[in-house]
Design a protein that fits this description.
Methylamine Dehydrogenase, Chain H, 5-stranded antiparallel sheet, 35 strands, 3% helix, disordered N terminus, binds fe (ii) ion
């Protein structure tokens, strides 16, 4: 039987409470499986046939608010099955990591040991016929479509170091480009390419002067770019018990390193940039002798210590150009409104493209807020926004191209929204081309899904 959640009784206006343990950041304690159909306003496009998967932090044991970091909560996956215009089922499960087995005595996963028993809480990807729960601190965890944890995934023993939560999977070739940063290096950074069947094709090491946090990278059809930006290990935070002992150091320079895919790491070219930080890359592509990357940039973050918000600034969308023969990154602002969690149609990843989608992000009452969505046209440099009524908040939208969709905006945005008036969540489906505030469908789920990080949509035909 589920235990009462002590977090339910926390006073949200108590300034001493960690903001990532309040409102819809607070974890759910119950693992459940519910059968649909659920109450629907509007109609679900019948072509949406598959599994919407989301991952996010959900501490299984109530953590110390003084030291808890949003990035450290145990990973919980949520799966929503869509078929024939109905939501057929919902299920959630904590990923059975070794960290979880140590804290609540679940069965430890099979597979190799990791240097850090991480939370597998950041993203979920479908690659080589495997559902993978991802977190940059360690190896992926292989999951079933029913959200059972199969094993720690090392690709038949080929991968022995951490893997990013943001690999790039090419829809045409099925290949995966990925990297991992390793605070226990050197090497502090490795680049990998995997074949479509999951075999590791190449690994190369890249020299960095120090270990830095690298959350995402840029991948075009011919090049990759790595961000050496100054979030660094912080001994003081480690001594104070921080769960993620990294902080921003604006005295250190930033660099972006560009490597031709297939070349060894020593051939990398570094471009200078003022200190800033990028968690997420919307997309990247080749433009002649230039690698273009559309990125979400923080002036600074990880700069406010422990137990509070992630950082002092909110991010905006920029276009970064790294041109052969130049020594600095060329930066332009694409949209000066704050946004996060950018996505595109998978079919245009690493290619010239036109549209990206993202969550609006803001702050109010001491909490991060996700008041709607943005659609940005990178060709015209214009944005459309859906802004939600006050009782609703969104998060990362997932774009799914319509069956007859011809362009990278002809499809749907699949969003999980928190409804404060019900303290429950909705699955909401918007027409991505029109960006009407009135959705195609709003499905009232009988559960609350805490604000998380990343998800994916797996078409049923690809996994059944
Ligand atoms: Fe991320």
């Amino acid at each position: 039987m589920a235990q009462p959640n002590p977090l339910e009784t926390l006073d949200p206006i108590n300034a001493g409470v960690n903001p990532y343990l309040l409102e819809n950041f607070r974890p759910v304690l119950e693992e459940t499986a519910r059968s649909g159909p659920f109450e629907v306003e509007g109609s679900i496009p019948p072509g949406l046939d598959g599994l919407l998967l989301r991952n996010g932090p959900n501490p299984a044991v109530v953590p110390d608010p003084k030291t808890y970091h949003w990035f450290a909560g145990d990973g919980m996956l949520h799966a929503i099955s869509l078929r024939d215009g109905e939501v057929r089922a919902y299920r959630n499960r904590l990923v059975r990591t070794r960290a979880l087995s140590a804290s609540i005595d679940t069965k430890a996963p099979r597979g190799p040991k990791e240097a850090i028993n991480g939370p597998a809480n950041t993203a979920v990807a479908f690659f080589a016929n495997r559902i993978l729960a991802l977190c940059e601190s360690g190896l992926p965890h292989r999951m079933t479509a029913e959200l059972e944890t199969v094993c720690v995934e090392d690709f038949d023993g080929a991968l022995a170091s951490p893997l990013t939560a943001h690999p790039k999977i090419d829809v045409e070739t099925g290949r995966m480009a990925a990297f991992g940063y390793d605070p226990f290096g050197p090497p502090y950074l490795r680049y990998h390419e995997f074949d479509a069947d999951g075999s590791l094709l190449t690994t190369t090491s890249i020299d960095l002067p120090r270990p830095v946090m690298i959350h995402d990278f840029a991948v075009s059809s011919t090049k990759v770019a790595f961000f050496d930006l100054p979030i660094v290990l912080d001994g003081d935070l480690a001594l104070a018990g921080s769960q993620i002992p990294f902080s921003f150091n604006d005295q250190l320079p930033g660099h972006v390193g560009v490597l031709h895919r297939g070349q060894p790491g020593e051939h990398i070219t570094w471009y200078g940039i003022d200190p800033c930080y990028v968690f997420h890359v919307a997309n990247a592509f080749d433009d002649g002798d230039c690698l273009v990357a559309d990125v979400v940039v923080y002036e600074k973050t990880f700069d406010v210590g422990m137990g509070g918000l992630l950082g002092s600034s909110l991010p905006r969308l920029e276009r970064w150009r790294m041109r052969d023969g130049e020594v600095r990154v060329n930066r332009t602002i694409l949209d000066d409104q704050t946004l996060e969690f950018p996505v595109t149609d998978q079919a245009v990843q690493s290619r010239d493209y036109r549209h990206l989608f993202a969550a609006q992000i803001g702050r109010r009452d001491g909490l991060d807020r996700f008041p709607g969505y943005v659609k940005h046209d990178v060709e015209r440099e214009t944005s459309l926004r859906i802004t939600l009524p006050d009782h609703l908040q969104g998060g990362e939208p997932i774009f799914v191209r319509a069956e007859d969709g011809k362009t990278d905006d002809e499809g749907y945005l699949l969003c999980i929204e928190y409804d404060r008036s019900r303290d429950l969540s909705d699955l909401v489906i918007y027409d991505a081309h029109e960006m009407n505030a009135k959705p195609e469908a709003r499905i009232h789920l009988p559960v609350r899904i805490p604000f998380g990080f990343h998800g994916t949509f797996v078409p049923r035909a690809t996994f059944s």
